[in-house]
């Protein structure tokens, strides 16, 4: 989605006011073997800021993800956001004397570290062209959890996140690199603390992507993508998956007969204008008894009835479906009764 967004922003750059804050949520598809937390069809939340190379934008994006955790009831003891700076890592690799041509292939190897055993990882580093001494040096870098203190960029991001109040959710991890080539600086991923799942979501800064997709100008950006399937599994594992109410209808407005359908519509309009969650039975030919059974099966707590007697008196019969109690009320009183 990110390359498509960059292409779209580049094409419309002359009509946009930067920085652009953009998000979307929708259905996505990918071709892979379905497994727990990953499917060929899923929903994904994308959120980005484009048009600024300030690390304040990175801090805001990361804080949005942390805020989302908090709203879901997930705690820093259950989930973390791990961050790194690929440029900072590349500078360290260069200082080790690693050939620049090996940098991106090496980053792809580092990205696989959490998926393989330590011995296999060491073998992969050797196969990538590192000698024993450089493998040891690189492992020291990847295990140095205080390495960010030497980076103005990372300390700046973490300080702003602290001001937002989400520093408990965020930690530096020099092993987070993200395997995609277009990331240029900050990279970050969501992980569960126990490590029972693969990366929950990920993102980063992509300052050159607009040019990579063919645009003549550079429009820096930062953002993340989060799918629903892994997040659902994490919420269930942590006992935080919400109990969703399937039907929130407060009242069913019944239709006594086709001749009185217009009265039922009138009452529905009144209730809806007052923000009462109202359902109007759609078939005026259906017997009232069947409409009441419909309300009971759907768990609708109240039904409103306007029959000949009610129409003559200008009243509405409101029936409580849980105890069977019925009252004849003015239309305005029905709203108060349903609050």
TrEMBL record:
<protein>
    <recommendedName>
        <fullName>histidine--tRNA ligase</fullName>
        <ecNumber>6.1.1.21</ecNumber>
    </recommendedName>
</protein>
<feature type="domain" description="Aminoacyl-transfer RNA synthetases class-II family profile">
    <location>
        <begin position="19"/>
        <end position="339"/>
    </location>
</feature>
<dbReference type="GO" id="GO:0000166">
    <property type="term" value="F:nucleotide binding"/>
</dbReference>
<dbReference type="InterPro" id="IPR036621">
    <property type="entry name" value="Anticodon-bd_dom_sf"/>
</dbReference>
<dbReference type="InterPro" id="IPR004154">
    <property type="entry name" value="Anticodon-bd"/>
</dbReference>
<dbReference type="InterPro" id="IPR045864">
    <property type="entry name" value="aa-tRNA-synth_II/BPL/LPL"/>
</dbReference>
<dbReference type="Pfam" id="PF03129">
    <property type="entry name" value="HGTP_anticodon"/>
</dbReference>
<dbReference type="GO" id="GO:0006427">
    <property type="term" value="P:histidyl-tRNA aminoacylation"/>
</dbReference>
<feature type="binding site">
    <location>
        <begin position="182"/>
        <end position="183"/>
    </location>
    <ligand>
        <name>L-histidine</name>
    </ligand>
</feature>
<feature type="binding site">
    <location>
        <position position="178"/>
    </location>
    <ligand>
        <name>L-histidine</name>
    </ligand>
</feature>
<feature type="binding site">
    <location>
        <position position="48"/>
    </location>
    <ligand>
        <name>L-histidine</name>
    </ligand>
</feature>
<feature type="binding site">
    <location>
        <position position="44"/>
    </location>
    <ligand>
        <name>L-histidine</name>
    </ligand>
</feature>
<feature type="binding site">
    <location>
        <position position="30"/>
    </location>
    <ligand>
        <name>L-histidine</name>
    </ligand>
</feature>
<dbReference type="InterPro" id="IPR041715">
    <property type="entry name" value="HisRS-like_core"/>
</dbReference>
<dbReference type="GO" id="GO:0004821">
    <property type="term" value="F:histidine-tRNA ligase activity"/>
</dbReference>
<dbReference type="InterPro" id="IPR006195">
    <property type="entry name" value="aa-tRNA-synth_II"/>
</dbReference>
<dbReference type="InterPro" id="IPR004516">
    <property type="entry name" value="HisRS/HisZ"/>
</dbReference>
<dbReference type="GO" id="GO:0005737">
    <property type="term" value="C:cytoplasm"/>
</dbReference>
<keyword id="KW-0436">Ligase</keyword>
<keyword id="KW-0547">Nucleotide-binding</keyword>
<comment type="similarity">
    <text>Belongs to the class-II aminoacyl-tRNA synthetase family.</text>
</comment>
<dbReference type="Pfam" id="PF13393">
    <property type="entry name" value="tRNA-synt_His"/>
</dbReference>
<keyword id="KW-0030">Aminoacyl-tRNA synthetase</keyword>
């Amino acid at each position: 989605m990110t390359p498509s967004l960059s292409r779209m922003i580049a094409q419309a750059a002359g009509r946009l006011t930067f920085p652009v804050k953009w998000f979307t949520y929708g259905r996505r598809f990918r071709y892979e073997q379905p497994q727990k937390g990953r499917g060929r069809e899923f929903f994904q939340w994308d959120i980005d800021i484009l048009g600024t190379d300030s690390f304040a934008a990175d801090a805001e994006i990361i804080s949005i993800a942390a805020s989302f955790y908090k709203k879901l009831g997930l705690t820093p003891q259950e989930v973390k956001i791990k961050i790194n700076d690929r440029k900072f890592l590349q500078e360290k690799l260069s200082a080790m004397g690693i050939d620049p041509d090996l940098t991106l292939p090496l980053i792809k190897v580092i990205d696989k570290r959490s998926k393989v055993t330590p011995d296999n990882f060491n073998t992969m580093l050797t196969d990538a062209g590192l000698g024993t001494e450089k493998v040891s040096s690189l492992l020291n870098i990847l295990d140095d959890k205080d390495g960010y203190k030497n980076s103005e960029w990372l300390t700046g991001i973490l300080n702003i996140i602290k001001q937002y109040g989400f520093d408990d959710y965020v930690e530096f991890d020099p092993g987070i690199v993200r395997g995609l080539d277009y990331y240029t600086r900050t990279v970050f991923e969501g992980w569960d603390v126990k490590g029972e799942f693969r990366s929950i979501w990920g993102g980063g800064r992509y300052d050159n992507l607009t040019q990579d997709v063919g645009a003549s100008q550079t429009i820096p950006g930062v953002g993340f993508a989060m799918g629903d399937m892994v997040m659902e599994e994490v919420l269930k594992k942590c006992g935080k998956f919400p109990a969703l109410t399937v039907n929130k209808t407060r009242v069913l407005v019944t239709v006594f007969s086709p001749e009185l359908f217009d009265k039922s519509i009138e009452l529905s309009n009144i209730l809806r204008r007052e923000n009462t969650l109202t359902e109007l039975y759609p078939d005026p030919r259906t017997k009232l008894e069947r409409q009441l059974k419909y309300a009971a099966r759907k768990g609708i707590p109240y039904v409103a009835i306007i029959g000949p007697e009610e129409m003559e008196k200008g009243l509405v019969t409101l029936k409580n479906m849980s105890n069977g109690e019925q009252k004849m009320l003015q239309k305005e009183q029905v709203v108060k009764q349903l609050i």
